[in-house]
């Protein structure tokens, strides 16, 4: 029997015609301390009521899909210990399920608090199912990676396909998803003069779609439809920074902070549905701008947990980006980021192996 079987069954039985919002935020805002919150409180050695209040106000999340039953719940937020995420996932040309499960094992063994499956090729749903079934830590994904594998060109993406992929992944038990809903059409001219343009894969795909169709980002326009799926399964948003700077020359520019403003707006929409949110952050940032990143995110996104990709404090360090990012990560964690995405020596060079 999985650790969360009885917890989730009890909650489903208690719903009885009271809607279908299973999010931790939904219960926290009703004064309920869930078993997941109690579990997190024991792990963090803090009062369960503090966990509940942080979840209720949106300053912390517990990514815990109701279908990921063997999950050992963990909390992400400034009142808790700073967490580390590890990325795994196959490409269209390399890696098998066994390789990804071995990477998952290594990541968890060495202390990863969450793992993202960023598979971009092969049988993505089968690989993801195996990873979720084997994982005691929350699993995150970027649904647009699977959606793009089902069409011929980025221009062929549709909101119907995206919602289908999101629902399928939620049904499987994905705990949090990167959704690049903050990349708006009005930002596209702002990246033209950048040194490194758009380095986010999701951001680039959506920019290509918007430029081709001359329409607004369909994820932004249909954000509430995604919220309705997320509340049914308790999937947390990891609001993607599709315009994060890819070099320190582009750091803290109008495109980056314009997107952050949109993410603040979307955070408030998600909270209206009692859906949990964390905000993804940069990227390449010079050391003297790191504190500003946290201060701005706290102000604009009302202290939703900040999940940063690095940041890397210099541009040129192939083979040494585990060090350039460790410098930025130590600083941004000190200033109040809630989760740090690890960077390996393989960053900018290739796919890391086990």
Question: What does this molecule look like?
Answer:
With 354 residues, this protein is of the alpha/beta class. It contains 14 helices and 10 strands. Strand 3 (83-88), helix 5 (97-109) and strand 4 form a beta-alpha-beta unit. The longest helix is centred in the C-terminal third of the chain and has 19 residues, at 254-272. 50% of the residues are buried.
Brief synopsis:
By secondary structure, the chain is α/β, with parallel strands linked by helices. The chain contains 14 helices and 10 strands. α5 runs parallel beside α6, α8 runs parallel beside α11 and α13 (290-300) crosses α14 (321-335).
In the sheet with the most strands, the strands line up as 3-4-5-6-7-8-9-10
Structural class: alpha/beta
What percentage of the residues does DSSP assign to strands (E)? 5-15%
Output mean pLDDT.
96
Rg: 19 Å
Which range best describes the helical content: under 10%, 10-25%, 25-40%, 40-55%, 55-70% or over 70%? 40-55%
- How can the largest sheet be summarized? 8 strands, parallel, barrel
What is the overall number of helices? Answer: 14
Q: What are the secondary-structure elements, in order, as H or E?
A: HHHHEEEHEHEHHEHHHEHEHEHE
Total beta strands: 10
Estimate the global geometry from the Cα principal axes: globular
Ends: how far apart? 30 Å
Low-confidence stretches: none
